[in-house]
């Protein structure tokens, strides 16, 4: 939340140079406050786990948030009970008339398919187009980020020779961006994907800001259109054991998968990994809700 300071205070210039969020008394006195309406398009197979991952982060701010869960009509989930979906999820035709302050589009296990081969691609495109006028800011995660980069900006993904799987070190590339306020110079984050986006294409694109990247994992956090679209290629929302569960599951299925890098203590998969990214996960979601949703969304939508 912002610091409210008297108008003309000399320290204001110092704080602004350090990218500290400040607000003068006039703006503070005229702010209207209401609950934020956040839409979550959950494309992950184990939807209940993803719900917990995201709600844990969205619920740890002073802001009141109303959540609406969205499912696709053109693809039926095989890993979540129909009763759960019927009880807690809605479809796009049922909400497309509404305005939302923020939206999250999750990853999906379809990254090795060409975008247009995904059975709900046309439906997703319609939703992404709709966000331009009906959502203040949309946060895209993993495959959802790649889908947004492809649809909105024409940046395609490519298949990696080896899966990007593990917990990698990242650096901040743009300290002026509000989304990264409070971040350490270096921090870690989990990744789990078979594809990547070309760094050179992102840097060259006039509408995309590369905010953070990893030497091993590539581009991580990107922003476009003053934060209306935010793309994150990894999974800060993951719990400590999420990569371990994925690794042991695939091993049990006899699939070829290497041990997640920089993850298990002493590279021993029998040891319990620790969560070294939790604070930055909470910080990123808090910054998104505050600076890109709460501070930007209209009190009353037209």
TrEMBL record:
Enzyme Commission (EC) number: 2.3.1.31
CDD domains the record matches: GATase1_HTS (cd03131)
Keywords (A to Z) from UniProt: Acyltransferase, Amino-acid biosynthesis, Cytoplasm, Methionine biosynthesis, Transferase
Positions bound to substrate: 163, 192, 249
Alphabetized Pfam families for the sequence: HTS
Molecular function terms from GO: homoserine O-succinyltransferase activity
Major site of localization recorded for this protein: cytoplasm
Record's catalysed reaction(s): L-homoserine + acetyl-CoA = O-acetyl-L-homoserine + CoA
SUPFAM superfamilies referenced in this protein's UniProt entry, alphabetically: Class I glutamine amidotransferase-like
Residues under site feature: Important for substrate specificity: 192
Subcellular location: Cytoplasm
Catalytic site: 142, 235, 237
Residue numbers marked as site, Important for acyl-CoA specificity: 111
Entries under NCBIfam families matching the protein: metA (TIGR01001)
Protein name (database record): Homoserine O-acetyltransferase
Organism for this UniProt entry: Cytobacillus purgationiresistens
């Amino acid at each position: 939340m912002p610091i409210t300071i008297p108008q003309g205070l000399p320290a204001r210039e110092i704080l602004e140079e350090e990218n500290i969020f400040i607000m003068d008394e006039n703006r503070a006195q005229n702010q209207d406050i209401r609950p934020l309406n956040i839409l979550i398009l959950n494309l992950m197979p184990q939807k209940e786990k993803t719900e917990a991952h995201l709600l844990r982060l969205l619920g740890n701010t002073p802001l009141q948030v109303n959540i609406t869960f969205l499912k696709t009509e053109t693809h039926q989930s095989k890993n979540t009970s129909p009763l759960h979906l019927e009880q807690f999820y809605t479809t796009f035709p049922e909400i497309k008339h509404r305005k939302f302050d923020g939206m999250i589009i999750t990853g999906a296990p379809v990254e090795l398919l060409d975008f247009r081969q995904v059975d709900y691609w046309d439906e997703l495109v319609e939703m992404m187009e709709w966000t331009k006028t009906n959502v203040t800011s949309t946060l895209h995660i993993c495959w959802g980020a790649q889908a947004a980069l492809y649809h909105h900006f024409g940046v395609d993904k490519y298949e990696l020779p080896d899966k990007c799987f593990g917990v990698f070190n990242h650096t901040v590339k743009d300290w002026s961006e509000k989304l990264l306020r409070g971040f350490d110079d270096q921090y870690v984050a989990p990744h789990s994907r078979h594809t990547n986006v070309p760094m050179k294409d992102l840097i060259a694109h006039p509408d995309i800001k590369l905010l953070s990247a990893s030497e091993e994992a590539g581009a991580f956090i990107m922003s476009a259109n003053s934060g209306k679209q935010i793309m994150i290629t990894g999974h800060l929302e993951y719990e400590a054991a999420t990569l371990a569960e994925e690794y042991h599951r695939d091993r049990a299925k006899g699939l070829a998968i290497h041990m997640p890098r920089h993850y298990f203590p002493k590279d021993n998969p029998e040891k319990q990994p620790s969560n070294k990214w939790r604070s930055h996960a909470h910080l990123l979601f808090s910054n998104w809700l505050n600076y890109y949703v709460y501070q930007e969304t209209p009190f009353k939508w037209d």
